[in-house]
Design brief:
This protein is of the alpha/beta class and about 375 residues long. It has helices at about 15-25, 70-85, 95-110, 125, 135-145, 155-165, 190-195, 215-225, 240-250, 265-270, 285-295, 305-310, 325-335, 340-355, 360-375, and strands at about 1-5, 30-35, 50-55, 85-90, 115-120, 145-150, 170, 200-205, 230-235, 255-260, 275-280, 300, 315-320. It is globular, with a radius of gyration of 21 Å. The protein binds ligand GMT.
Length: about 375
């Protein structure tokens, strides 16, 4: 198949999933064309079967808000025609599903048709899509997609609840890991020693948006550090990084909190972690939590959204009610002071990640979905 993929190319779970999917599809013999405004962050410079088409948004003084969604639709239309694509797969509904719909309408004018697959990732449904300025267009664009997938059952139900979506059949296809990449054994222990200097390593990876509740992480760490010699490694960047830095200073733990900034290849870092913290206020899935578990790292987070589909409380991690800092700290201390239990939890996390979220199995599900969409076209 010749597949067009559009995603947010910058640091973030939806772009990571879309890119890993494209790479895996190309490895299985498909031709993959990324249509985005920038080279996706997890895409190496060259891989056979993968092409990158940059979307250029024309500037004009009249445009206070340059119309990216229209430029994207035009680029999609052009790439579909010039490379004879079979389908478009867009990740994150806004504005990608709308641009794909416009591109398809333009193609239909020329007697061409192409199925659109839309994957819903999270805040496109839970926050942005429910904003009154986007609600109607999000519902419309989802309903016009030929196939709709959501990364968790939580997100499927939330799509139906928030958008009514009588015309859509949302299928759950979860995110995935490549077990060869997220393999703790292959990374050794040198980085753990460099990061922790003999202390335990707690880790968080995200885009530091408000929904991630980064202050909760620092507050939890301050309680853990008072009981167990430990450091906190914060990977990524975003609007609330300053809040987390300020909280670390306020609590007097700043010397043991390390902000590493954006790092593309997180597998070696996760292999150096003892615990992963993800106290998001409604994570639709939590790709970083899955990657942590695949790296034998127990996860501590909140029992909301799609996280309970990824982390099994008491088996692969510990989940608490939103805002329960004491509960998270208590769980963290319990695990950091009981190596046998922590190791068993890490092993269970690896086993479940490989059994339920294996790349080969999930990519085959996308292939089957594409074939179904093409057969119906
Ligand atoms: O929805 C977002 O906030 C953006 C998106 C991203 O690009 O990082 O994250 C979502 O998609 C990821 C990949 O499917 C999921 O693992 C994240 O849980 C989800 N984020 C939220 O639901 C907050």
């Amino acid at each position: 198949m010749k597949i067009g993929i559009t995603c947010y190319p910058t640091y973030g779970g939806s772009g990571a999933v879309a890119t890993e999917l494209g790479i895996a599809l190309a490895a299985r013999g498909h031709e993959v064309h990324f249509v985005t405004y920038k080279q996706p962050f997890r895409l190496p410079n060259f891989l056979p079967g993968i092409y990158f088409h940059e979307v250029d948004v024309g500037r004009y003084p009249l445009f206070e808000y340059p119309p990216y969604d229209l430029a994207l639709a035009v680029r999609m239309h052009e790439v579909v025609l010039s490379h004879k694509l079979d389908l478009l797969h867009v990740h994150y509904a806004i504005p990608h599903a709308t641009s794909a719909w416009i591109a398809r309408e333009m193609l239909r004018e020329n007697g061409h048709d192409i199925p659109i697959v839309t994957t819903l990732h999270g805040t496109d449904i839970t926050i942005v899509g429910q904003d009154p300025s986007f609600h109607a267009i999000t519902k419309f664009s989802i309903e016009r997609s030929d196939r709709i997938t959501a990364v968790s059952e939580f997100l499927r139900l939330e799509t139906i609840r928030a958008f009514g979506c009588t015309r859509c059949d949302v299928q759950v296809i979860p995110n995935f890991i490549d077990p060869k990449t997220f393999d703790r054994e292959s990374h050794g222990t040198a980085l753990h020693e460099q990061l922790g200097g003999g202390r335990r390593v707690l880790m968080h990876i995200s885009n530091f948006r408000a929904v991630k509740r980064v202050k909760d992480i620092v507050q939890t760490f301050a309680k853990v550090r008072a009981a167990v010699p430990s450091v906190l490694v914060m990977v990524g960047d975003g609007p609330d990084r300053g809040l987390a830095e300020e909280e670390a200073r306020k609590l007097g733990v700043e010397s043991d909190v390390f902000f590493l900034g954006k790092i593309d290849a997180v597998a070696p870092l996760l292999a150096a972690a003892d615990l992963f913290l993800i106290p998001t206020d409604r994570e639709s899935f939590g790709l970083s939590a899955l990657e942590a578990q695949a790296s034998a790292v127990p996860v501590i987070g909140y029992d909301v959204g799609g996280l309970p589909e990824v982390v099994v409380h008491g088996v692969t991690g510990m989940l608490h009610t939103v805002g329960d800092i004491d509960g998270m700290a208590h769980s963290a201390i319990a695990l950091l002071t009981d190596d046998v239990r922590a190791r068993a939890m890490g092993a269970a996390a690896v086993a479940r990640a490989r059994a339920n979220f294996d790349q080969a199995t999930i990519v085959a599900r996308y292939e089957a979905l594409y074939q179904g969409a093409l057969a119906n076209a």
